[in-house]
Design goal:
319 residues, mainly beta, Jelly Rolls, 3 domains, 6-stranded mixed beta sheet, 5-stranded mixed beta sheet, 4 helices, globular
Length: 319
């Protein structure tokens, strides 16, 4: 598979339907009590682009695009007109500023960027309220739309952006500076496997008109890492700046520690059954961190990982 740096036709995606979805497993009892488990750490977009096909020429353009991507094999850019800029959000709606498609244009102070090192920062967009905030990593910013701020002032030079990763790289260290940014962005997508397996089911209804009943495209999440669906219990990628405690909401953790000396705590094993494996922890960052729990204290160096099990005496062990 590969990412093709081309965008699905805008005039067809403009008429599409879809949006974000969370994969939450809900186990309901007859009593009405429920157990809910999030299988993903972030939302995933699903879109039906068939609604945007208005003429026969649109059908043929989709057929060409589908063939060029080898069906579901290769991913591509997709513009979600409902959410395509960091300028869009609940605040802009309340303030009456979201008058254009997707909301107001991006500004240099839309979001605090996530620090990866003293010179590299990740473009993000935040959603939420006072109770909870979701952080979305922007990996496909639109070229020419990225704006960056340093300590509250727009910076027009001294940095570059990778439009296929969303990583902003400065030419000098920004240690201690507040780095903000904004941009327009696309969603990395592929055709859904159901479309690839069953075919597009295209038909010509009239001399100048045709249709495809449904064409689902789905957002791809971090294609260079292990997909969430292939990790029992779910996967979670974290960028931490303070000590953190693992939970059973995920079993596969990819952790970047922004500073040295941080500790990742394992949960209290008192009420957990013995066995496992419980967690697979990977260090994806440049700094070591300490993995700590009942009976365990182990440094996890950059690029290494650990598989955690629970002994019969309720002590955490590394395999």
């Amino acid at each position: 598979m590969a990412f093709h740096n081309v965008r699905f036709p805008d005039d067809i995606s403009y008429g599409s339907q879809g949006g974000p979805s969370f994969k939450v497993h809900i186990h309901s009892l007859e009593s009405g009590h429920e157990k809910r488990v999030a299988r993903r750490s972030q939302s995933r977009g699903y879109y039906d682009v068939a609604y945007g096909i208005k003429a026969l020429k649109d059908l043929y353009r989709v057929l060409d695009f589908f063939q060029a991507r080898t069906g579901a094999l290769h991913s591509f850019r997709y513009k979600d007109f409902m959410d395509c800029t960091t300028g869009w959000g609940a605040d802009s709606l309340r303030d009456g500023r979201a008058t254009e498609v997707g909301g107001p244009g991006p500004a240099f102070d839309d979001e605090d960027l996530v620090q990866l090192s003293n010179t590299q920062f990740q473009l993000v967009k935040r959603y939420g309220d006072d109770t909870h905030v979701q952080v979305r990593k922007i990996t496909k910013p639109v070229s020419g739309t990225v704006k960056i701020g340093v300590n509250g002032v727009e910076s027009v030079s001294g940095w570059t952006v990778n439009t296929e990763t969303g990583i902003v790289t400065f030419t000098s260290s920004q240690a201690g500076n507040d780095i903000t940014g904004g941009c327009e962005f696309d969603v990395p997508c592929r055709f859904d496997a159901s479309v690839d397996e069953a075919g597009l089911k295209a038909s010509i209804d009239a001399w100048d008109n045709g249709e495809i009943p449904s064409i689902i495209v789905v957002e791809t999440l971090d294609e260079n890492a292990s997909p969430d669906d292939f990790n029992f219990g779910g996967s979670l990628a974290l960028c931490i700046e303070a000590s953190y405690t693992l939970s059973l909401a995920a079993r596969h953790y990819r952790i970047k520690a922004n500073t040295s000396g941080l500790t990742v705590f394992l949960p209290d094993p008192t009420n957990l059954p013995s066995g496992g494996p419980y967690f697979f922890v990977e260090n994806d960052g440049p700094n070591s961190f300490t993995l700590s729990g009942s009976g365990l204290s182990q440094s996890i160096t950059a690029g290494s990982g650990a598989v955690l099990v629970l002994s019969a005496s309720k002590v955490w062990r590394m395999m």
